[in-house]
Design brief:
This protein is α+β, with helices and mostly antiparallel strands. Helices cover about 35% and strands about 25% of the residues. It contains two helices and three strands; from the N terminus they run E-H-E-E-H. It has a three-stranded antiparallel β-sheet. A hairpin with a 2-residue loop joins strand 2 and strand 3. Helix 1 packs across helix 2. It starts with 16 loop residues before the first strand and ends in a 9-residue tail after the last helix.
């Protein structure tokens, strides 16, 4: 999964269902760890759902587009579940150069 440009193409033909959100992690380092962890998994049905992520300072910015609402809901829900898990791990154990060990 590649990082998104600063201006994703919204409402391209057939991609009528969209969602944008951002999460402020309080530090660029934590945002980067979450981004790098989530970026390795692409969408399972890229012909039906697009996901673009980028970092903006200490914020993770995510854009979804889908051909049907049910695909958007499923993709968004799965992504948020993983994001919450990674966020909890970062909060619990920190990152390697903060002196914490995992």
């Amino acid at each position: 999964m590649a990082a998104a440009s600063d201006a994703p193409v919204h409402n391209s033909a057939g991609w009528d269902f969209t969602c944008n959100f951002e999460v402020d992690y309080g530090s660029e380092e934590h945002a980067s760890v979450v981004y790098q962890t989530l970026a390795v998994d692409g969408e399972l049905q890229p012909d039906k759902v697009k996901r673009e992520m980028r970092l903006s300072g200490r914020k993770l910015v995510v854009y979804f587009a889908a051909v049907e609402a049910r695909f958007l809901r499923a993709s968004f829900s799965a992504f948020v579940d993983l994001m919450v898990l990674v966020t909890k791990l970062v909060e619990e154990y920190g990152v390697a150069n903060e002196g914490h060990s995992c």
